[in-house]
Amino acid sequence: MKKIALLGHGVVGSGVMEILTKNQKLLARQAGEPVEAAWVLDRRAFPGLPYSQRFTQDFSLIREDPEVAVVLEALGGVGPAFTWGHHRPGLHHPGAESGQERGHLQQGAGGDPRL
């Protein structure tokens, strides 16, 4: 099973969670194994959602979870993506070869797979 963490639960992040929950079979078939959102980082709480227990405000839980294979960034601005991205060793950074800053590359629903 591939576990992902989602940073942000606004318009984009909540849409990602909707896709992950409604299309589990399709995603599993395409990925070759089940895909599950293990964590959702947001400063707000969202009680009543089917995945409410997965919310956290503590990024260290995501950073230290060895089962998280992919971190999806859906936060506005470059600050959080740049700061948190540099504290997650081992994540693939597609812009490194071109010299792009990690935060700028990821700003706006970027993905960072370790597949």
Write a structural description:
The protein has 115 residues and is an alpha/beta fold. It has a single domain (2-113), classed as Rossmann fold, CATH 3.40.50.720. The protein has five helices and five strands, in the order E-H-H-E-E-H-E-H-H-E. The chain has a five-stranded mixed beta sheet with strand order 3-2-1-4-5. The longest helix is centred in the first third of the chain and has 12 residues, at 11-22. The chain is globular and about 35 Å long. The N and C termini lie close together (12 Å). Mean pLDDT is 77; it is low at 92-110.
Instruction: Give the H and E element order.
Output: EHHEEHEHHE
- Using only C-alpha atoms, the radius of gyration works out to 14 Å
What is the share of helical residues? 25-40%
**Global geometry:** globular
First-to-last CA distance = 12 Å
- The overall average pLDDT, rounded, is 77
- CATH homology superfamily: NAD(P)-binding Rossmann-like Domain
How many strands, what sense, and barrel or not for the largest sheet? 5 strands, mixed
Q: Summarize this, please?
A:
This protein has 115 residues and is an alpha/beta fold.
Fold blueprint:
Blueprint: E1 2-7, H1 11-22, H2 24-31, E2 35-41, E3 55-56, H3 59-63, E4 68-73, H4 79-85, H5 102-106, E5 110-113
Parallel strand pairs: 1-2, 1-4, 2-3
Antiparallel strand pairs: 4-5
Protein traits:
single chain, 115 residues, alpha/beta, Rossmann fold, 5-stranded mixed beta sheet, 5 strands, globular
